[in-house]
Amino acid sequence: YGREDFLVGPANEAAYALIEAWPDWPDSVLVLTGPSGSGKSHLAAIWAERAHAWTVPAAEVTAEAAQHLVSNGALVIEDIDRPQNRDEAALFHLLNRARERGCPLLLTSALGIDALGLTTPDLRSRLRLAPQIAIAEPDDALLRAVLVKLFVDRQLVVDLGVIESLALRIDRSLGRARDVVAELDRDALGRQRRISRPLALAVLRRLGLDDEADPDG
Hints:
Number of helices: 9
Helix content: 40-55%
Largest sheet: 5 strands, parallel
Strand order of the largest sheet: 2-3-4-1-5
């Protein structure tokens, strides 16, 4: 989650630029949206380090905790899209307290505000007023670059044919790329084999990600 580990491409460059622009934000509250595995938590971690912010999941924002959380300065609230144990009244109170105190606040969500299914009109209104920046699904070039980096991070050397085969077959998701590389690493270690294109295709088929894959190449 270091700044040097974040790969920038067309899908995330606007969001990255806004994170880097802090504290020159248009508002003290920012909502960062994007599909699962798109890099929201990574960007949030970059900002948290920059702003000396705490990071808490939305489920931990309770009426009792709201005042205490805001009193500690900048704050990241992760995954406000998850309704499980989401206390809308506490989130509303926290937003109000953050604005009163000028506390910088970054919220992450896999969904846009209107798709959250919020039942508290005042909370929905407050979030709509906050600037929003979205991360899109990665393009082909970014997905390939991420795959290369994931293998390098694990000190694995693979042919470009493996990268190409994976990029053509997996979902356009950085989270999916991480999962597949981890599975390939485990499989290769278990078999004591290098990661080849046939092995990659076999693993994809086992994971149900490529029904047409031919493990024999």
